[in-house]
Amino acid sequence: MNYPVTFIFFLKVMVLMLLGQLERMSGEAMVKDVETARQVTAKILHLIQTQGENTRDVQTTLNILYILSELLTVGEGRRVGVFVSKGGTGILFQILITASKELPPSEELMLQLHSLLAKVGPKDRKFGVKARLSGALNVTVNLMKQNLQNTKLLLPCLQVLRVYSTNSVNAISLGKNGVVEVMFKIVAPYSKKNTSLLNCSLSKLSPCLLPLPCAETNARRAVDGRHVPVLLALYLDWHRNDTRHRHMLIRKGLLVCLRNITNIKLGRKAFIEADGMRILYNSSTECLPVRTLDPLVNTSSLIMRKCFPKNRLPLPTIKSAFHYQLPHIPAAGPVAQLYSQPAEVDDVVDESDDNDETEADTENDTENEEDEKDHRTANDDIETDLNKLHPKKSPSRPFEELRVYERFFLELSEDFQVSVFSSSRSTRPIIVPTAQALSPKHVPIPSSQEVFNPTKEQHTQPSPSAPNPSPPAPLTSLELDTIHLTKDQDKKEEAHIPSPDGHATFNWGSDCGSEGADDEGGEGAVLEVPDTALLLSLHDPDLYVEMVKGTHSVPQYAEVAYPDYFGHVAPTFREPLLERVYGVQRSKIFQDIERLIHPNDILDKVVYDLDIPSCPVIEDDGESLKFNSQFESGNLRKAVQVRKYEYDLVLNSDINSNHYHQWFYFEVSGMRVGTTYRFNIINCEKSNSQFNYGMQVLMYSVQEAISGRPRWVRTGADICYYKNHFARSSIAAGGQKGKSYYTLTFSTSFSHKDDVCYFAYHYPYTYSTLKMHLSKLEDLRTPQIYLRQDVLCETLGGNSCPLLTITAMPESNSNDHICQFRNRPLIFLSARVHPGETNASWVMKGTLEFLMGTSPLAASLREAYIFKIVPMLNPDGVVNGNHRCSLSGEDLNRQWQNPNPELHPTIYHTKSLLQYLAHIQRAPLVFCDYHGHSRKKNVFMYGCSVKETEDLGYRALPKILSQIAPAFSMGSCSFVVERSKESTARVVVWREIGVQRSYTMESTLCGCDQGKYKGLQIGTRELEEMGAQFCVALLRLKRLTGLRNHQHLLDLESDIIGTCSTTYVMEEDEPSFLEAIDYSAESNDEDVEHENELGVEVHKNPDHLDQLSDSETNHRD
């Protein structure tokens, strides 16, 4: 380049002097004297601006820009930042506008100006606004239109446009000026020339097509201009010719343009019409073997999933297949809407299966999660009103209404002057009627207090439509010797249980023959039931059957599931978290897409359907699996065979609801040994699941049980959880349209011929199992144990809600011992308000067994406290296979503020018990509600506190648990009060009853990522251990709070301060999934808690804890 010698010499001298100053200020000096650096740079800018203003000589301006380009090239962006801060961007735009007025404008000057703007733009936050206000947008666009064949000039113009279009207002303005059409003129078929230009044009085009609120019209322009087929043809051309994969960025750019266009409904329609599904499917399949092409495969997968036509669930209605007429319909809410919905309304899909509002390419729009709210910025769900936070300890009901509950607290007035010490049985339960009967003020008191035997006291089921059921009447006694297992010629085993009228039978319902070919053709043999009583002290198959007879279900189940009859013995081997295979989600999604590409390969054969009540099991020629879920706690509504060894499964909604699909429990038979089957549960609702992070489903093999191994085991390969193409109706999605269901998919094979297997979401624990366990607990009672079982109330479905009282008998009937007995502090425990959280029942089982144990720790605990326990708050939901609700169709853990005695009797009466205790100044020391958590690992607690306004006593119990319980994680605990949780048991008991230590204890459904069980899936052994360790922690809490000098407790609490960030709503352990990403095991970036070494020895020797001094425990952190 030829520069005037005099000008060059003069300009270089001045600039070099100033640059020399900057160079001498490099390093630490630059940091210390930033202002001087800015002043030096400002002088350079002033020099350039002055020269540009004082001359119209293009060559002079070029010389200035050339030197400025050299200046801004070095310095790692620092100089560009200073240049921007001193108004350099505006100067460049001013020169650009001036130069554009020359006809024709200098090509070299425009080239140099756009090159500089491309460097400066990314560092200037207001670059887009400045460009629009100065008129530079139109200058650049017009320049491109006039130089479509000038690749040298187009490249810097495209680079600048890419920065322009990051501003949403600019994007729509550029679209109006014809940029979209210009871009498609530049994008060309495969060529080894001008690849940089093509790549830049695609990176410019894609943001212009983003469906921002003001830029959606650009995507519409691309559709109206019929550019979707052009993009597909171009992509296919580059895919076929770029055999060495040197131009992956260009191919990715074409896909990104398609992705942005298909964010609108018209774009998706155009994509389908252009055969885009087949093109991308075939090209992606060819890319799969090359790992470096994963970005292309993932983007193609996202586009195809987004454009996959939404299908309706294969159901006549999303309401439950079972109907229960409520005696009283709520005035408002989801249940009221359900009952007011006209019968002719199609609630499965909306009139429009999607809308123009995109779900964007980061499809992690998490739904309203019941257990854990979705992430809200700034924790805006935390209650900050101190007036609402401070507990109000005055119960809202008059004491006269609560006096009837005195009958549940006989231990507080018992004088033990009669021969209670020789009796090993509790008194007859006192049934408090609901509002369906008499007012609590006028309850008839039973004249006799007979022995309560749950195996003999049976009740009939009231009519669902009867608003005022009469007191339950006992059924005819059933003889156990009439129940027998037989095997007919077809090798079908049944347990025949005559009903009172002598006709109905309970049957096992599925074929289960012998194992292997050696037994074929042999004589029928009696099924050998394993003696689980030798392995399980609280399990008795015959007693379980007796309990089933007194359990009332809406479908009137007449079958007993094998696992519940045989029982479960926890395996001795470890079950590690499943390592995720790379690409498993992608491969499953591609198999789903094949359904659209090759529809003739799909069988679409219904093999099980609860919507056909007369014959849900559809007979066939033996080429399909047989399914069944018609037993207590079962949940499977429909099974559709889609391929020879693949089945779509649909779960049933909670009764009187149209959603809550998560819990499943069903039976499978008719399988082939060694064949891999794929099961897809297609109507899951939560946006994320621990199935994506190592959790497996549970399987129970009857053949294994017969062989002496009755147990649930984790099973399933290729497990993943992802959004599918089944449309979710806005009726069930809170009014939101365009939502989809999620699929849980897993594959498994079977080891035994003619086996009957069961699959479950988590270890089942039925209501009949609870009744059996409570009956067996009676047998563990010794003269030193005070145990009473009451019936708190009857549920809507006619099932009893048990209430337990456990403590130690007084040493004698002396006044001192009786006074000590009556004045023991109370602990109030509850569990299983959510039926699908079966792990809560296993934790409760561990608690109950520990409390009834003979160890010194158990004896000390009984002597320290009186335990009031409601082990199952939602029997109806458990019996009928619900996931979250009771028969009222409502989440009972959201009814504690104002429970309805008709619709929520268990909550109403449990709260009344607590209100009674508050009235007599005997509020519990600790209240804890056992729950399960579906999206976090470990066991942890939620508590209640007024931030920084009260002492930290509420943290003592979880802190103790973190020291002694291997599965417990203090780091996962949270003690804030959220507005959305103000009607839960934890918050209401804290706020209204005044219990400072009011908790929800959450147990993972998956496993642990810290401590002794790190990397393992949780089992019943660990859950029961957690229940026992909770008891041990209560004993340690008693010792700490009972000290005259509370310094030990304060020391313990002070250890927590600053070590646990629990003043905010705890987020999920794992991030929500971006569906464009293949989630391999390597990408699982879960937050890992520090391993807790404590509790290992405690678990092996619980008595060792008793030997530790308080000071030792306080310092074990």
Short description:
37% of the residues lie in helices and 11% in strands. It is an alpha+beta fold.
Question: Any key phrases for this structure?
Answer:
single chain, 1117 residues, alpha+beta, Leucine-rich Repeat Variant, Immunoglobulin-like, seven-stranded mixed sheet, 20 strands, 11% strand
What does this structure look like?
Residues 346-397, 440-524, 1080-1117 are annotated as: Disordered. It catalyses: (L-glutamyl)(n+1)-gamma-L-glutamyl-L-glutamyl-[protein] + H2O = (L-glutamyl)(n)-gamma-L-glutamyl-L-glutamyl-[protein] + L-glutamate. Keywords: Carboxypeptidase, Cytoplasm, Hydrolase, Metal-binding, Metalloprotease, Nucleus, Protease, Signal, Zinc. Residues 1-20 form the signal peptide. Residues 464-474 have a biased composition (Pro residues). By secondary structure, the chain is α+β, with helices and mostly antiparallel strands. Among the domains are: 1-166, Alpha Horseshoe (Leucine-rich Repeat Variant), CATH 1.25.10; 206-308; 584-760, Immunoglobulin-like (Sandwich); 767-1043, Zn peptidases (Aminopeptidase, 3-Layer(aba) Sandwich), CATH 3.40.630.10. Helices cover 37% and strands 11% of the residues. The protein contains 40 helices and 20 strands. It has a 7-stranded mixed β-sheet with strand order 14-15-17-16-18-20-19, sandwiched between helices. A 6-stranded mixed β-sheet has the order 3-5-6-8-12-11, covered by helices on one side. Strand 14 (785-794) and strand 15 (800-808) form a beta hairpin. Helix 6 (88-100) runs antiparallel to helix 7 and helix 11 (168-176) packs parallel to helix 14. The protein is elongated, with a radius of gyration of 36 Å. It starts with a helix and ends with a helix.
